[in-house]
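Attaching the record inline, Q. Sequence:
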Amino acid sequence: MNPDLFRNSSAGKVIKTPKDFYAFIPNPLPPDIVWSPELVAVLSDADRALGQLAGLGRTLYNPHLLMLPFLRREAVLSSRIEGTQASLSDLYAYEAIQIPLFEESKPDVREVYNYVQALEYGLKRIETLPLSLRLLREIHATLMAGVRGEFQTPGEFRRSPNWIGPPGSNLNTAPYVPPPVPEMMEALNAFERFLYADSMLPPLIRLGLIHYQFEAIHPFLDGNGRMGRLLIILLLVEWKLLPSPLLYLSVYFEASRQTYYDLLLKVSQRGTWQEWLTYFLQGVTSQANDAVTRSRRLQHLRENYRQQLQTQRTPAKLLQAIDLLFVRPVLTIQQMQTELDISFATAGKYVSQLQDKNILREMTGQARNRIFLAEAILQTIDEPLPTTDSE
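Structure, as predicted:
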């Protein structure tokens, strides 16, 4: 790490360690923030967009019909930033039968699946335990179980230095070296105090500061990027900014990946908080608007399917099968049997009816162990939206 690039930063300081490499120590939060007209404007936009999404979330008939698909999309995109190649359909297929469609993608799919498990675990835990260093370690243990990095002390803060840089980097050549272990623990303790402290700062500003600070501390040997993005979602729910986890920023970060990394680094090098916070808040606005549009499209699709099937003789369980598809757009007959508590024969009959209506299609071409796909639902969840949308 070149210490000269960090000399004039208000975000922290560079130290030379006893082992002769340089590392950056972030200052405790919060920094002094310059409230420029631009920052005030993008904060207003982000608050408005998030409020609209929160309002929609509170009026949903069944929030899980949107929450669970969005959660899985986030898992795919957050993991993709780290280099995985698994798709959303791969993840759903893995969840349906615990075997990915393509065997060589198994490690990637398992990483994405772990992200789902880690987020669901965290959401459950924050119902009774505030976000803390202890909870972050617990979530990290779930995230890293049985995947690449599983030998990098899952669930424990690092006990050795790490660095951020391209392949082949080391402690001397990497663009960024986080705090050594003793300074890291001091920074983490200050980080936890900021999580708990009352603050007059707007919540979305606090969230942007917290995300930067976690990435600057980089407390785990592996999985820091995913953990930092999980932290955003969990705090949105814990702080009651959203009634359920409907907003995810990974698609925004992934689409502008180099800008994301560059702006985080610039905060450390130059203290450019306004640039980072502006970018972060623009991401909140963009993804909140995306989530509102996508949610409405999913609601319209659900109503369309129900209208196609609903008659005076339609079994209530068949309509429940429609709702199940929004939670599991890739599934097996046995999965439908289990989820709806019906016989295998009835589940098979429902699947046939849904195929006749072109709501489901069989995707394996097999006589046994067949997997069925609700293609329109998956596309609505996953396909990029136009940049302008009249909905």
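The first helix runs from residue 37 to 59. Confidence is low (pLDDT under 50) at residues 100-105.

More tomorrow.
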